[in-house]
Amino acid sequence: MAALTFTLKKTLQFSIDCSALTPNYLANKSTSEIASLLILYGKNQIRVDEIFSVSGDDAQNIHFKNTSHQLDYLGANMSSGHMHIEGDAGAYLGFGLKQGTIHCHGNTLAFAACNMQNGLIRIDGNTGDFLGGASAGLRKGMGGGTVLVKGNAGDRVGDQMRRGLILIEGNAGDYCASRMIAGTIGVLGKVGSYTGFNMQRGTLLLAKTPRLNATMQNCGTHTLPFLSLMFKSFATLDTQFASISTQRVQRFVGDGACNGNGEILLISPDLMH
Description:
Elements: E1 3-8, E2 16-17, H1 23-26, H2 31-35, E3 38-41, E4 44-47, H3 48-51, E5 52-55, E6 58-67, E7 71-72, E8 82-87, E9 101-104, E10 120-123, E11 143-149, E12 163-168, E13 184-187, E14 203-206, E15 217-223, H4 226-233, E16 248-254, E17 262-266
């Protein structure tokens, strides 16, 4: 069986809702049935084969080729299978992902991994605001799973994040870990202003000294043995975080403005090898 492949064949004027093009939704459908499906293009519906060339028959392995940032909701609510995006993706990549893997070889717009529950998302480029955050109207963001970002992330990473793991090898914008409920976020690059704003619980692992508000309290330098186990658990992931080996960190707690028990752990860059 060959991977089910969607090749974008025209320049898009509007965004496309690609939420129907997932392994679980396309299972047991023939290539002709998939080609005739209607998807939302702007305010209108259009057949899949008017936008994409469709080939292959393995719906558990979906490839998107020649993609652009106007392909929204790629991998939305996936519950099985694998998806490769050979280019950029639009907003809401992996929205509500329940299981499976998504690998985007380019950049994405905002709300990647929004409301994600499980599975793995890897983004080789940069991603926009609200990575792992909550969609409008919901009070909890990412609830599980793992997100790897090789580039930079925008503002509000992990906003209202409930569970899961986000590892960013580049920089993150303002309000990183804002309103965080639980989970773990790691950033090897710089973070912007208001880091940990209204952070309630959870762990923010940083390699560069952040500029923190007075409501984040410096608890000094500590030896935390659990860090060895955490870094060893990264060994199965394709991430620079797997090269960290230390139990010694500078620890901050807060946000004290909301009785937060969150923690920010600052590691030294020379502990990476």
